[in-house]
Every structure is written in structure tokens, then in C-alpha cells.
Amino acid sequence: MNFGHVIFESLYFGTPVICSGTTAWDKLDEFNASWNIKLDKSQQYVTLIENLILLDDDSYCRYLKGCKVHLDFLKNEKDIIKNNLLLFEN
Questions:
Q1: Which of 27, 47, 56, 67 has the smallest CB count inside 10 Å?
Q2: Domain that holds residue 53
Q3: Continuous H helices in the chain
Q4: What is the pTM for the complete model shown?
């Protein structure tokens, strides 16, 4: 099972994600499309969620736009497309 597809689906629908530091999606924060927190940093998860609750619409919209920017970037990455197609061969 590959949970990375769930992350992609969330981004596709404009929903930023909270990821552990152990996923292949470690560059999402560069696009303002997610947050990466190590699994053993539980207080960071709590703090992040508390801060997200307080975001105003403009601030949250930056993350929604970040999802789109990152997906546009992925569409142009030939290796990513090729590697995903390989998942479904055989």
C-alpha cells in the first residue's frame, strides 16, 4: 500500500497536508503545500494544529495556492511520472 497517493489526492483537491518527516514528500513545505514534522515531535503536531485553527482566510489561501503550484511542478517532472507508471506495471 502506498499512502503517498492519498497525499497527492489531498493536494489535487487543494488540501494541504501534515506529513511525517519520513515520507518522500519532504519538499512540500517549500511550496507552502504542507508541513513536515518528525513522528517523535508530538508537541509540534499539537502546536501546528492550534496555529492552523487561528489562520485567517488569506493566510490559508496561500497554502491552497501552494498545493496548485506544487502539482504544476510535478506535472513537469518526467522522472516522477515515469516512476509512478512503473508502480502499475507487472
A1: 56
A2: 4-87
A3: 4-12, 42-53, 57-75, 78-87
A4: 0.72
